[in-house]
Design a protein that fits this description.
about 475 residues, alpha/beta, 7-stranded mixed beta sheet, 14 helices, membrane, nucleus, N-acylphosphatidylethanolamine-specific phospholipase D activity
């Protein structure tokens, strides 16, 4: 059984009433940074430097070009100094509820956020962020005290001694009843994609793949349209719920976000198909260390980022894509362990903010992300592949920890991902939604604060700040 794959299942769609976000403001394209120093601690540039960026003189872009010629040397040059780890915050439920309630009050009415422009900040310069780290062998390591690497004895113990309780039915009729796969709206009306105004729309395409439409952009997260999460399509974890659409049926996609290299999150066939269809017009945002692999797949428009680095889609510099931390690991072959970084993504627009957690165990990174970029209008957070806890807790959150991430990043709403598609762990395939609703009740949250979607289903956040 492939350790680097994951999933689980669904429940009746909750009501979407109760949205209480602030009123979005139109983006002012003529906004310029004031003469006085900006409030961001990491900023050290000048107005002239920003103008150079707009003309294409971007130091990060220059680093990308250097990476193309010598990826390994570039990785070595960008190695950060190791930072001491601090103890992980273990929040009692009462404290979490208090923080959640205080976060609601901050809403989304901050005008500085509403008209935020991409300044190409490098948040690694800030003292209170946890930077990525490498070991003596040059491979990335988790800086979190909550991390424990999976060992071969533990992998074997999990694989052969733990009972698999997933119990996915073989009957397609039963699966269709419990986990229906809907045809996404854009298959019939692709011209409607991206037309969300100041609102946003999210469509779940199975596992960790979501299509997000916000701030005049359409992007995908960790796309996998293959039947198996595996290097070959004859063996490996197989979907028990097929993809609701094909790559050919997708609307125009502006960007793709990749969180890490495990096969259920980085699928070669899907990457190749997307690249074949959209070519260099599609921008790929990937973790540090993955650029060369993407280029071998034929992808040209690739931006490789370290934690706390940011970039944008050409022509849409009002929307910033920041690669943010998570607690996980990378592996695709026998010898490439952690040669590539892993992480989450924070997408910051003039009207909306979106957070994609990727694959992760629970750690204090999410409080740092919420402090820096919250509140988020929507977060996509994994809820599946969490049993047995003695083994999975370091790399996959359970539904209760997913709720804590929702609170830590100050998400107004969250959508459940990473479940109901592949049977990658030992919990019953329909348990994740049940456990999620139980956790929401314990933390005093509503079901529509952290909602479920059926495969292929969409939700809209309109200009009245209410999900439809």
């Amino acid at each position: 059984r492939a350790l680097w794959s994951c999933s689980v299942q669904l429940v009746p769609l909750p009501s979407a009433e109760g949205w209480s976000g602030g009123t979005p403001q139109p983006f002012n394209s003529s906004y310029r940074r004031p003469a006085e120093p900006p409030p961001w601690k990491g900023w050290s540039g000048t107005m002239e430097e920003e103008e150079k960026e707009e003309k294409g003189d971007d130091t990060l872009q220059g680093r990308q070009q250097q990476s193309r010629s010598s990826p390994e040397k570039s990785m070595d040059k960008n190695t950060d100094e190791e930072q001491p780890s601090t103890a992980c915050n273990q929040y009692p439920k009462e404290a979490v509820k208090k923080r959640q309630n205080s976060g609601r009050g901050s809403g989304g009415n901050d005008s500085s956020r509403t008209f935020r422009k991409s300044f190409r900040l490098d948040y690694r310069l800030e003292e209170d962020v946890t930077k990525s780290k490498r070991g003596k062998d040059g491979r990335f390591v988790n800086p979190w005290p909550t991390w424990k690497s999976p060992t071969l004895p533990n992998i074997l113990k999990w694989s052969f001694m733990e009972k698999n309780n997933s119990n996915v039915p073989r009957s397609k009729q039963e699966l269709d009843k419990e986990l229906p796969v809907l045809q996404p709206y854009f298959v019939q009306t692709p011209e409607d994609a991206g037309k969300t105004g100041a609102g946003m729309r999210v469509t779940w395409l199975g596992h960790a793949t979501v299509m997000v439409e916000m701030d005049e952009l359409v992007f995908l997260t960790d796309p996998i349209f293959s039947q198996r999460a595996s290097p070959i399509q004859l063996l490996g974890p197989k979907r028990f719920r097929g993809p609701p659409c094909t790559v050919a049926q997708l609307p125009k996609i502006d960007a793709v976000l990749i969180s890490h290299t495990h096969y259920d999150h980085l699928d070669y066939n899907s990457v190749a198909s997307l690249n074949e269809r959209f070519g260099s017009e599609l921008r790929w945002f990937v973790p540090l260390g993955l650029l060369q692999w993407m280029q071998r797949c034929g992808c040209e428009n690739v931006i490789e980022l370290d934690w706390w680095e940011e970039n944008c889609v050409p022509g849409h510099d009002a929307v910033t894509f920041v690669f943010t931390p998570s607690q996980h690991w990378c592996k695709r072959t026998v010898t490439d362990d952690n040669k590539v970084l892993w992480g989450s993504w924070s997408v910051l627009g003039p009207w909306n903010r979106f957070f994609f957690a990727g694959d992760t165990g629970y750690c204090f990174a999410f409080e740092q992300i919420g402090k820096r970029f919250g509140p988020f209008d929507l977060a996509a957070i994994p809820i599946g592949a969490y049993e047995p806890r003695w083994f999975m807790k370091y790399q996959h959150v359970d539904p209760e920890e997913a709720v804590r991430i929702h609170i830590d990043v100050q998400a107004k709403k969250s959508v459940a991902i990473h479940w109901g598609t592949f049977a990658l762990a030992n919990e019953y395939y329909l348990d994740p939604p049940v456990k999620l609703n139980e956790a929401l009740e314990r933390y005093g949250l509503k079901k529509d604060d952290f909602f479920l979607l059926r495969h292929g289903e969409s939700r809209n956040l309109n200009t009245n700040d209410r999900f439809e």
